[in-house]
Model the fold of this input.
Amino acid sequence: MKTFHYIRPASIAEAVAAAAEPGAAYLAGGTNLLDLMKGGITRPSRLVDVSRLPGLDRIERLPDGGVRIGALVRNADLAHDPDFARSYPTIAEALLSGASAQLRNAATVGGNLLQRTRCGYFYDVASACNKRQPGAGCDARDGENRLHAVLGWSEACIATHPSDFCVPLVALDAVVEIEGRAGRREVAVEALHCLPGDTPARESALEPGDLIVALRVPGEARAFSAHQRYLKVRERTSYAFAMVSAAAALRIEQGTIRDARLALGGVAAKPWRARAAEDILQGVRPGPDAYRRAAEAALAGATPSGDNQFKIELAQRILVRALTLAAAGTPERVAALPASPFSTLPGALIDA
Amino acid sequence: MNLSISLTVNSVRRDVELEDPRVTLLDLLRERLHLTGTKKGCDRGQCGACTVLVDGRRINSCLALAISHDGADVLTIEGVAHGDQLHPLQTAFIAHDGFQCGFCTPGQIMSALGLIREGQAGDDPERVREGMSGNLCRCGAYSGITDAVLEVEKSLNEANQRRSA
Done:
């Protein structure tokens, strides 16, 4: 690991000023950053430790019924907050399906939003990677790429965004509050992450020094709390990143879907909101035919970036399963195996 | 830059001068405090061998910078038994063959302590397995590990029921 200057600012303003310098990086939980630094993938010359900044570790209920989550709230604390888990069960389930209990105890909300891709070629400094070193090329294009992107990818980069948490956040119109050199601003989580295009090294809408201070989930999202699920296919049942995942949230009245929110994970460089599929579900009766049509619309623009044609069909099936489970109703408690398709809960067709 | 930190490790206050900000909590425990019970497996947050409790919560000490944890209260495997009297989890691991080579065992036991404190798994085997998934065991002693954790969870449940009866 390259050595660095360690700075522990006392205020947000001090943090922003310290991190605006070239070569600086913020440290919070460290679960992703330290791993990247040990591998030489990220080599900051200055670490700005924000883990003790005051006031950023609270979960607050807002007057409009929404919730404001400080950027330093730990993933486990958010997932197990009773009011939050009741109001936004798909977000709690997504959090609990990610990483391990140890990592969820350390990892923060802000850090999860900025988690880097898990593409093996990004992690291997001996490989060419346009994200790590602009212009170097992309060894994933002709490499082991069965888990890579099927939506929104470019010739320059076929990596996927690894976060589970971000998938329901995008579906439920969450917003991040950012403190920067020009003051405070807000960005929808959906607009936070960039598709690669010709500049895969640019991963988010953040500018140097920008610090995510909070995340807000709007009160309107509570209308979906009775019918929502997160589902995630992994290569092992627990402690693995998604091959494909889906968040589905429905508002069902008198047997008709009034509103739907859908997003996919593991398919693109950003959490993928599926608006065309949402439109198809609006005003129809819940059922397999409608789910299948919605799933086809969600993946209509998908193309394989390598040996991953199967992910296009898999994503559609997992979306159908997520919708089926959401329509059946949010379970009282997060399943023993969060987000697992091998759940013992009734109501789902295993071979949907 | 002042890199001296102060930690409480197994109820003992330890003041440590760090010559380098890169030192992880794991390396500090092993190399500086000579508490080698906490193991370095992958050193990348993938195996759980380095699990310790920090302020009562289980974390991977390999992904924690020591300097960032100034003032923390750390519990390692060395602080779990009371003298010669083993912690019930340690006894249960022996009784259920919850290990073979033993390398992952300190991390497994610290993780199980964290799991029990979190209070989410109860005596549901599926929730215990899920909650312990951050600890790999190359010998494949998972069945014994699960049985050991379940036994302790069950005896805690029974004790709680007796208290509330």
